[in-house]
Design brief:
Elements lengths: L15 E7 L12 E5 L2 H6 L10 H9 L28 E2 L5
Parallel strand pairs: 1-3
Antiparallel strand pairs: 1-2
């Protein structure tokens, strides 16, 4: 990931653990392609303060959609490593593998 430019090295007081998630039941567990890279941000999430705001009424959402000319969608299945992080938040998004790298 460093070579591909999807991550950068950084010094941080935070570090969330890397986990490998089994993603393909058709592949045997000894096949490396049966796993995907993920970061366990549960501890970071537990101390993160979320902004509070009211959700719009579904009727208002539907009314707004009726008057749009352009709509878009996101492909969450192919979107790995596509999330841009605000430079001020990079310190909190640090992750570390078991060997400390």
């Amino acid at each position: 990931m460093l070579r591909e430019g999807t991550t950068i090295p950084i010094q941080s007081p935070y570090a969330s653990p890397v986990v490998l998630c089994h993603q393909n039941n058709a592949l045997p567990p000894d096949n490396p392609e049966a796993y995907r890279f993920a970061v366990d941000y549960r501890k970071l999430n537990a101390i993160t303060r979320c902004p509070r705001y009211l959700l719009p009424h579904i009727e208002d959402v539907i009314t707004n959609i009726l008057h749009t000319r352009i709509m878009s969608s996101l492909d969450r299945w192919s979107g790995y490593f596509q999330l841009a992080v605000n430079p001020s938040d990079v310190v909190q998004m640090t992750f570390m593998a078991k060997n400390g790298t």
